[in-house]
């Protein structure tokens, strides 16, 4: 089955700096890669996603890049704000989208 | 609009007691349904998923079971809880069909403490 690894497990940045979270996957059949944000005591919510036919996608301050050859994808958050503090999860899924495999999560702390 | 309800929000149960967590989805038909467990400081582990009534796929061998008695109802159960069953349990749904978005929508979760 698919194995998704995520690094770092914790990340602390100063407000206004950029944050980068990286994930690797093992199954070359995976073709959909979402990122979820989980605030304390709540369920994860989708913030951005990317399909395997695209190398990069941006949505305001967040962007995701995908390298299919190397089987890794990354989340980039620019101009971080304290409200960006949360746990972020990457995930991978194959074409039928029945199953999503999640990384172990990154706890992002943005210091004001 | 679609909503997902999960209850209870928190639960404290003694070892050996039974468990029943319920999840319901409103505003959609024939959703794919999922149960995840999130251990403290760790990622989301897929426990079960269902593509239809009575259709349950188990991802990991464990002390838990799942059932889907109705289209939009997904239940997580155990006959006898173990200490290792403690964790944060999340239910999620995804639309099915060709036009469905590939997004999983999560409930607010149930924090289970087995003592």
Please give a structural write-up.
- The complex is a heterodimer of chains A (112) and B (115).
- Chain A is mostly beta strands and 112 residues long.
- Chain A is 0% helix and 56% strand.
- The termini of chain A are far apart.
- Chain B is mostly beta strands and 115 residues long.
- In chain B, strands 2, 4, 5, 6, 9, 10 and 11 form a seven-stranded mixed β-sheet that branches. In chain B, strands 1-3-8-7 form a four-stranded antiparallel β-sheet, with no helix packed on it.
- Chain B is globular.
- The mean pLDDT of chain B is 90.
- At the A-B interface, β4, β5 and β10 of A face β4, β5, β9 and β10 of B.
Ends apart, CA distance between termini of chain A: 41 Å
Task: Please tally the β strands of chain B and state the result.
Answer: 11
Question: Order of helices and strands of chain B, N to C?
Answer: EEEEEEEEEEE
Percent of sequence in beta strands of chain B = over 45%
**What is the mean predicted local confidence, pLDDT of chain B?**
90
Number of helices, counting only DSSP H or I runs of 4 residues or more of chain B: 0
Q: Pick out the low-confidence regions of chain B.
A: none
Number of E-type strands of chain A: 11
